[in-house]
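User: My advisor, Dr. K., asked me to get a structural model of this assembly before our group meeting. I'm new to this, so sorry if the format is off. These are the inputs:
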Amino acid sequence: MDLQTMTYLVVGASFALYIGIAIWARAGSTSEFYVAGGGVHPVTNGMATAADWMSAASFISMAGLISNMGYGGGLFLMGWTGGYVLLACLLAPYLRKFGKFTVPQFIGDRFYSKTASTVAVVCLLTASITYIIGQMTGVGVAFSRFLGVSSEMGIYIGMGIVFAYAVFGGMKGITYTQVAQYIVLILAYTIPAVFISLQLTGNPLPQLGLGADMVGTNVSLLEKLDQVVTDLGFGKYTTTTAGSTLNMFVYTLSLMIGTAGLPHVIMRFFTVPKVEDARYSAGWALVFIAILYTTAPAVAAMAKMNLIGTTNVAAMKGGDMFAPESSLKAEERPDWMKRWEKTGLLKFEDKNGDGRIQYYNDKTKDAAVKAKADAAGWKGNELTVNADIIVLANPEIALLPNWVIALVAAGGLAAALSTAAGLLMAISAAVSHDLIKGVIKPDISDSGELMAGKISMAIAIVIAGYLGLNPPGFAAGTVALAFGIAASSLFPAIMMGIFSKKMNKEGAIAGMLAGLAVTLIYVFAHKGIFFIKGTEFVNAIGGPNSFFGITPEAFGAVGALVNFIVAFVVDKMTKEPPEHIQHLVESVRIPRGAKAVDGAH
Amino acid sequence: MNDTGKAYWSAVLGLLAKVLVIWFVVSFGAGILFADALNSIKLGGYPLGFWFAHQGSIYVFIALIFYYAKAMNKIDRKFDVHE
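Assistant: The format is fine. Below is the predicted structure of the whole assembly, which you can bring to the meeting.
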C-alpha cells in the first residue's frame, strides 16, 4: 500500500475513534460539562492530563530544538516537567478541595472580589487564546505535510473533529478522547525512537541508548557526537548552554511556574473524586509525560548523529571530514531529503558548485575549523534543516515502514487536537461560568448555563480556527507569552490564596496586574506591541535582553517575583481580609470535608 | 485555627520544604549550576551533569510526587483530617 493511502487510513481510523467516543460521552449537566461528572480515576486523569499538556510543540518541535541546542535544550525538559512538582504540592490538591469549576472562581471567592476574578478571566483568556493559535497551525501543518490537503482544509477538518467531542461532550468528551489521543501520540513517538536507538546503539530503550556505545565500537554515542559536532564547528553537544547560565536558570524556572499556572492543566484536577486522588494524579500525569520527555533527548541526539552521518561519511567511519570525497554527493542524497525539500523545511544550496553537500557551522569561532573549511574550498553551510523535521522525518531517516510514518502523522494531530480541546474547555468555562453566571446573569439555570457553555465553546472553536487560518504574524512568540502570563499573574495569585491567610484582595489584584504588566512590557519591547512588527521599543528598556541578559521567553519568573513583592507590600498597607475568608483558607488546607466539585457561587 | 490545625499545617510545610529542596537541587543544582563540575563524572556513556538536565531530574520529579502523595496521606491520617 502506498504511503498516502496508508496515512489516510491511519489518520481516518484515529478520527473515527475520537468521534465514537464523542457519541458515547455526551454531557447532560454542567457538572459533566465542566468536570466530567467529577468521577474520573486518577490514572485516567493522569493520562488525559499528559495529552492535554503535550502540545504540537512538545510532539513536533521539541526534539528538533534540543537537537540544535544540545545540553541547553534541557531547559525545556526540566522546565516542562518540573512544573508538575509545583502543581502537585502547591496547587492542585488545594484547588480540588476548594471544589469549584474554574480557576477564576477560586481567585474571585478567595479574594472576595469580582474584580479579582475578572482580572483572572482576562489573564486566562489571553494565555489560552494565544496558546491555541499554535495548536491550530500545528493541525494545518500536519495535514498539509502528510495528507496532501491544503493547510486551510486541514484546519477546517480539525475544527470539525474538536467540535464533535468538545461541544457535545464538554470535559467528559474531552477527557476520554484525550486518553485515546495519548495512546496514539505516545506510540507514534516511541516506535521510531526504539528503532533508531537499536540501529545506532543496539539498545532498544532510547533512554539507555543515549548513554550507550555506538554499535560495533567502544565509543559512547555522546562522546562521538561531541567529537563530530566540534569538528564541524558546532558547540560541544553535551555542554553548550542556552545563553548564560543565569538565563538558562531563569528560563527553566519560568517554564516550571508557567506550567503549574496554566488553567487548562489545573482544571483537569477538578475531575478526580478526592483530594488524595489529585496528588497521585499529578504523579501519574508526569509518568505519562516522562515517557515522551525522556525519549525526546535521545531522538534529538540520535537525529543529529544520523543527519551528520548521512551528509559526511567520515563522521561514522572515521577519516578526514574535510576530504572532498567525505561529503555526500548531492545526486546520491536519500529520498527523504528530496521529499522534505519540497515542503521548504529542508534546503540544499550548492554554494561552492562541487555537486556535494557540506553541512557545518560556517559561523564558527573556532579558527582551526575555519581554516580547514577554507582549505577544502567550502563556501558556507549548504544544508538548512528546520527543527520540526527531526521528529516528522524520523521514521523515513531510519527507513521504517510506511505504517510508522502514517502513525507519526496521526500522533502529531492527536497532540495538537488534545491540547486545543483542553484550551477550548478552559476558555468556554471562563466565559459561561465566570462571566455569564458569575457576573452577568447569576440566576441562570443549570440547563441554561450548559447551553451557554456549549455556545461559548462553539464560538471559541470558530475564533481559534480563524486565528489558525490567519495567524496574526506572531504565532512564534505566542507560546512564550502564554507561559509568561500564567507564570507572572495566575500562579502567584493562586499560591498566595492558599499559603497566605492574610493576603487581601488589594494585594492580590495589585500583584497580578503588576506581574502581568512588567512581563508584557518586556515581551512587547522585544517583539512589538501585541507582536505588531515595527512597534518594538527595545531601546526604551536599554537594549535587547537588558535585564541581566534574560531573554523575553525567560522573563515569566521575574514577573512572578514582581507579583509576589507588590502583593505583599500592598497587603501590608491595606486592611486584613474578613474573618470568613481566613476560615475559608483554613478549610481549603485540610482534605476532610471535600465534596464533589460544583458550580455554586 | 486550633492547635491541631497549626500542628498539621506546620507538618505539611515541613514536608513541602523537603520536597522543594530536592526539586531544586536535582534540576537547578545538578542540572544547571553544577552541571559542568558533575560532567567529569560518567554515568555509563552519560556525563553526569548532562544526564541530570536531560534525564535524571525528570525521574526524580516523578519519585518526588509519589513520595509527597504518600507522606501527605500519612500526615492527614495522623492529624485525623483525611477524607
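One thing worth pointing out at the meeting: Residues 3-78 of chain B form one domain.

User: Perfect, thanks a lot.
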